[in-house]
Design a protein that fits this description.
This protein is an alpha/beta fold. It is built from 12 helices and 17 strands.
């Protein structure tokens, strides 16, 4: 539990009992997300303390609240969204952007606990042949898939990805390994760019040190050379940095598509003249919508380099150490995973 910023502690609480339409899960494995780190650092505007964080979860069903025991013993991944079901977005089937959305580990307690209750409708079975290190990447992969498929990426595209964090690198692998498109990755950390090259990037650009004004000339020249002057057909912005959003617009060719998955800290200024002159399509990408089956299929097909993505592993009881590692060494820690210690 994160009691307050920079204070994560183990606490004992009674195990909740599932009611109708719910199940009790035993924690098997969980990935630490950037939003978990933001809660630890005290920079998330949505978190009220104390809060049990964690929404990238793999669990085992140990009790069913409805009397239907068909899921008992199943390994499952959890869609952590709790939409209202009645707002305009929910009525349109886009529950991921529900007006009253609550997210496990953010608005309500999450899954970094030995046992926790979730709605049955939020569960997806893990294939028998899939190991836990693969299954734990399902939820973050759904976020990357949402960003990629919102922009309609196909094998014919030349995609520029801003940010070589977990979401950016997962998006890279969906774009290249799964869809067969070419991708260029932009970041400021050489360690992350080396990973991007290993994971299939056709080219990488380090823009560290560039403070403007405008987009780094080395980036623009590289994109022009890579695309033979056409510029990129798709840009995926996964950093949440205003300069990257502006650079994405600069690096897109006419009739290009921009997918925004990185959250800026506040409103930013956008060059609408360029947007209109190039007639760019801009897609906001929030959470994911009906992407869990697709993400499971992509992972089962071997399109994601699981062993490369997971850089550190800690038992659940050492979650505070894991969070501090991510805070202090962002270039070293990519996907940090917590696991149960009972041999599961």
């Amino acid at each position: 539990m994160v009691k307050k910023p920079y204070e994560a502690a183990l606490v004992e609480r009674p195990v909740a009992a599932p009611t109708r339409g719910e199940v009790l899960l035993r924690f098997l494995q969980g990935g630490i997300c950037g939003s978990d780190l933001a809660a630890y650092q005290g920079v998330s505007p949505l978190v009220v303390y104390p809060r049990v964080i964690g929404h990238e979860m793999v669990g085992e069903v140990v009790q069913c609240g409805s009397g239907d025991d068909s899921l008992l013993g199943a390994r499952v991944v959890i869609e952590p969204l709790l939409p209202c079901g009645s707002c305009i977005a929910c009525r349109k089937g886009r529950y991921n952007t529900c007006v009253h959305l609550q997210v496990m580990g953010v608005h309500v307690d999450g899954g970094f606990q030995d046992y926790f209750v979730v709605p049955t409708l939020n569960l997806y079975r893990v294939p028998e042949e899939m190991d836990l290190d693969t299954a734990v990447l399902v939820e973050p992969l759904t976020i990357a898939c949402q960003a990629v498929f919102r922009a309609g990426v196909s094998a014919a595209d030349q995609v520029i990805i801003f940010g070589a964090g977990t979401i950016g690198l997962l998006a890279l692998q969906v774009v290249t390994s799964y869809l067969g498109a070419a991708a260029l990755v932009v970041d400021v950390l050489p360690e992350r760019l080396r990973l991007a090259e290993k994971l299939g990037a056709a080219a990488t650009i380090n823009v560290a040190g560039w403070t403007g004004p405008g987009t780094a000339p080395v980036l623009l020249e590289a994109v022009k050379e890579w695309t033979k002057g056409d510029l990129a057909t798709v840009a995926i912005e996964a950093t949440g940095h205003p300069a990257s959003t502006a650079a994405a617009i600069d690096c897109l060719g006419h009739a290009g598509r921009l997918s925004l998955v990185g959250w800026n800290k506040g409103p930013i200024t956008v060059d609408t003249v360029q947007l209109m002159r190039k007639e760019l399509d801009v897609f906001g990408s929030r959470n994911s919508c009906r992407m869990f089956p697709r993400a499971i299929s992509i992972l089962a097909g071997g399109h994601i380099a699981t062993r490369t993505m997971i850089t550190h592993r800690f038992p659940l009881r050492r979650a505070a150490e894991a969070l501090e590692l991510m805070h202090s060494q962002p270039g070293v820690a990519l996907k940090v995973v917590l696991y149960a210690e009972d041999g599961a």
